[in-house]
Amino acid sequence: LAALARAGKRIIAPVREDGLVLFRPVASVAxxxxxxxxxxxxxxxxxxxPSTESLFAYxxxxxxxxxxxxxxxxxxxxxxxxxxxxxxxLKRLDDIFLGAEEDPLYAQRRRLTTVVxxxxxxxxxxxxxxAVGGSPAGVEGSDLQLIxxxxxxxxxxxxxKGETLVRGAAAKWSPASDKDRKEAQAQRLAVEQGLxxxxxxxxxxxxxxxxxxxxxxxxxxxxCLSCGICAYVCPSCSCFDMNDEGNAWCGVRCRSWxxxxxxxxxxxxxxxxxxxxxxxxxxxxxxxxxxxFPLQHQERSMCVGCGRxxxxxx
Length: 314
Fold this sequence. Notes:
Elements: H1 2-6, E1 10-17, E2 20-25, E3 52-61, E4 64-69, E5 77-82, H2 84-97, H3 104-111, E6 113-118, E7 144-149, E8 152-157, H4 160-166, H5 178-195, H6 204-210, H7 216-223, H8 229-232, E9 240-246, E10 250-257, H9 278-296, H10 308-312
Parallel strand pairs: 1-5, 5-6, 6-7
Antiparallel strand pairs: 1-2, 3-4, 3-10, 7-8, 9-10
């Protein structure tokens, strides 16, 4: 990591800050809090999909308007120490932002990013990755994966980008043995057994879609405060709003995270809101995660089971 930093790469890793574990750019590997951190307060998605960013700036010049497109700074970055659920969440964002119409800002950051995940050696009470097709040692979205085996680390290169990242140092490391691999597998199985979550069946998406008018949404909606914390801490939520901020001479168009549980999320310019109640907005969140997205993406749930929404919902 120190060598990568000296080579000009930005290292983003979990650090302890005011009692919380957060992903932050680090200047020294001594800042990294990698062992026994469970999961970070929110995911590292903000380094690919920022909570607020400028899309372009504009300036009036007489009768003409000049535009200045936004772009990233071009620095390669390493997202280091993500839990497998968060790495899988990045793949869900890929489905949204690199789909039929590519988002240029997200795509540029994604090309410059290498993801190093950290397999879980224990589960938290809120975890349920196995219920949505994940694993404590899942590799979806990872270029490299670290597995802690006592005093040693097992490193798995999963993509060409991952192999390239460690090429300069790999010759100094010892090849993993069959014993190492068996120990890693035993650790994964032990964590999975501790999760005790029933898997969601593939047909749940169509069942949920047919439940559009079920009275359960009303009772669930009465408990939702519309605070939006579930969307803001979620590693796979991709909804955003756009605003123009400026004056008579110049301005900027900004994109900011949004939440489908907010009352203004679908309100039209006319004032009409097709989701006028909290129940209808809560239903949209659940159906988007567990029905609409799976039906369009080979039955893959949009939820990755990190459990932050369970832990932090007031």
